[in-house]
Design a protein that fits this description.
The protein is α+β, with helices and mostly antiparallel strands. It is about 35% helix and about 20% strand. The strands form two sheets. Strands 1, 2, 5, 6, 7, 8, 9, 10 and 11 form a nine-stranded mixed beta sheet that branches. A two-stranded antiparallel ribbon has the order 3-4. The relative contact order is 0.14.
């Protein structure tokens, strides 16, 4: 993970933005990390209850296809794409790059232009690996300037269909949330489908964004949305 590229200067609004980016890139460079012991025990217990007895090696990491384009990153992002494309198979829309069109989700993951949006600058991909297999993912990027609320946009997240019900998504989101807290992010904002909304509200602590605030997010930050409600949650600095 040492082949880290420099970020274009236009990405930054201040010294604080630069510091926030550098902190994120340290997590990228650190590669695979242990998950909190609390979540490791929860996941192992869920596996045991389901009758799985083999040893589990659980790690999480943050990837960036533009700034750390290693072979490992490319391979892991391929796994991420398989999970997302299967989970969001019915999502409409295509990204536009000049005269070419490409599917929406790969464009988000790889930072390509999307019609009506700037390039997906600053998009990071968090993944959870169990025995070297990507089982869950959350994409995120940071918005906000000085004297504004700093928030993380989480446009897409999913767990592999054959890996649901084991606490993977909750574990990964908690790891991401701790990183966000460490770099001064105050809110997490995500679009949701009608089908998934109840899950985010009940199990992850998100609340609905009112229409005026949602309009503000979309107008001023050009965040991704898919014609559904936006949810948000204050970032907690919980240590597990």
């Amino acid at each position: 993970m040492d082949d880290l590229k420099e970020l274009p200067k236009s990405w930054f609004c201040s010294t604080t933005c630069n510091e926030r980016f550098n902190s994120l890139m340290k997590y990228v460079k650190n590669g695979r990390q242990k998950i909190p012991e609390f979540f490791e025990e929860v996941i192992k217990e869920k596996h045991a209850l389901a009758g799985f007895r083999r040893k589990l090696h659980i790690r999480w990491m943050i990837l960036n296809s533009k700034l750390a384009p290693t072979n490992e990153t490319k391979n892991l992002l391929s796994s991420v794409l398989r999970i997302l494309l299967k989970r969001f198979a019915s999502m409409p829309g295509y990204a536009v790059d000049g005269a070419h069109e490409s599917p929406l989700i790969p464009s988000i993951v790889n930072g390509l232009p999307i019609e009506g949006h700037d390039k997906m600058h600053g998009m990071f991909t968090a993944i959870l690996l169990v025995n070297d297999k990507v089982v869950s993912t959350h994409l995120f990027r940071i918005h906000g300037r000085e004297n504004q609320t700093i928030f993380a946009e989480l446009p897409l997240g999913a767990t592999a269909a054959d890996c649901e019900g084991k606490g993977y998504s909750q574990c990964l989101l908690a790891c991401v949330e701790q990183v966000l807290a460490n770099i001064g992010v105050q809110l997490m904002v995500l679009p949701t489908t009608t089908k998934a909304q109840l899950m985010w509200l009940r199990h992850f602590g998100f609340v609905k964004v009112d229409k005026q605030q949602a309009k503000f997010y979309r107008k001023n930050f050009n965040i991704l949305h898919f014609g559904n409600d936006l949810l948000q949650k204050p970032v907690s600095n919980s240590e597990y």
